[in-house]
């Protein structure tokens, strides 16, 4: 029997279900705890979601069960959830358009947490109030280590990127992916193609450093850090800051200080769970706020 609980969230009525279901079995982390995490982290998280079309990874039976990506809003979505209908070139389901949710408020965030949407992914661009796509406001470098390289080597590459960005008068904000790699976000307000700019910097570092590759082919990546510049393609998304990840424990894509990046000598230093991140934000605030919102 599915237990239902009716709650009010900022004036919206929501029906929460299966709150006792364990979504992270190894950690004993339940759906109620997922909803609690997203509710408490919302002040830091929502600025990075607002205006951005949402793609989620849903795990209705927990991280050990089947999952699916979802872009189109579910049929039972409340009418108060903001949506934007956008073209869907290359849709795997043959759709010409997709109706995306736009997570602008806590009620929408809780609605998706109740759907076991553990992972939240968004593009580097927003939509206008009318729902029209806007130019990119962020550039991202996705740093993916090929074993035996780890996030330690990713930190080395992030520091290299920081230096070359400084040459162009730009500053980035680093975060963990919540998995094995990390990302570097750069505020963007120019007309230049973000994909081309990121590709140029990735190839420059590939020429200058043997442990860096800009090539996607996996045979090129063992022992190297792949700088995935293609994440700037408007059709692609990246895991949002403060999103949970669907691993054995509830790790989080966590904003970092540059001091933490510089000091990293062991992968375990940069593994943060939901509880860790709530404590970090209480102590340090949103390390991303100054440069990406």
Automatic annotation (TrEMBL):
Any GO MF annotation of the entry: DNA ligase (ATP) activity
Record-given protein name: Non-homologous end-joining DNA ligase
Record EC number: 6.5.1.1
UniProt keyword Ligase present: yes
Matching CDD domains: MtLigD_Pol_like
Residues annotated as domain DNA ligase D polymerase: 30-288
Keyword flag Ligase: yes
PANTHER family, per database record: BIFUNCTIONAL NON-HOMOLOGOUS END JOINING PROTEIN LIGD (PTHR42705)
Taxon lineage: Bacteria, Bacillati, Actinomycetota, Actinomycetes, Streptosporangiales
Keyword line: Ligase
InterPro entries xref list: LigD_pol_dom (IPR014145), MtLigD_Pol-like (IPR033649), NHEJ_LigD (IPR052171)
The organism's place on the tree of life at top rank: Bacteria
């Amino acid at each position: 029997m599915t237990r239902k609980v009716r709650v009010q969230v900022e004036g919206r009525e929501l029906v929460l279900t299966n709150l006792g279901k364990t979504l992270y079995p190894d950690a004993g982390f339940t759906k109620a705890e997922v909803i609690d995490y997203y509710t408490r982290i919302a002040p830091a998280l929502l600025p990075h979601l607002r205006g951005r079309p949402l793609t989620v990874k849903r795990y209705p039976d927990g991280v050990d069960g089947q999952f699916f990506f979802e872009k189109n809003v579910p049929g039972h979505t409340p009418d108060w959830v903001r949506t934007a209908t956008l073209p869907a070139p290359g849709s795997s389901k043959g759709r010409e358009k997709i109706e995306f949710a736009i997570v602008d408020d806590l009620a929408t965030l809780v609605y998706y947490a109740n759907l076991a949407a553990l992972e939240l992914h968004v593009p580097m661009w927003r939509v206008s109030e009318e729902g029209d796509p806007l130019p990119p406001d962020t550039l991202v470098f996705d740093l993916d280590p090929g074993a035996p390289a780890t996030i330690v080597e990713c930190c080395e590459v992030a520091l290299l990127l920081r230096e070359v960005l400084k040459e162009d008068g730009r500053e980035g904000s680093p975060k963990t992916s919540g998995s094995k790699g990390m990302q570097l976000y750069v505020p963007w307000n120019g007309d230049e193609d973000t994909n081309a700019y990121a590709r140029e910097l990735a190839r420059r570092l590939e020429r200058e450093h043997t442990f860096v590759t800009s090539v996607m082919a996996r045979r090129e990546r063992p022992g190297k850090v792949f700088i995935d510049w293609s994440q700037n393609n408007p059709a692609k998304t990246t895991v949002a800051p403060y999103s949970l990840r669907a691993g054995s424990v509830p790790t989080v894509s966590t904003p970092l200080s540059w001091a933490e990046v510089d000091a990293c000598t062991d992968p375990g230093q940069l593994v943060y769970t939901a509880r860790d991140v709530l404590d970090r934000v209480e102590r340090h605030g949103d390390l991303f706020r100054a440069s990406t919102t």
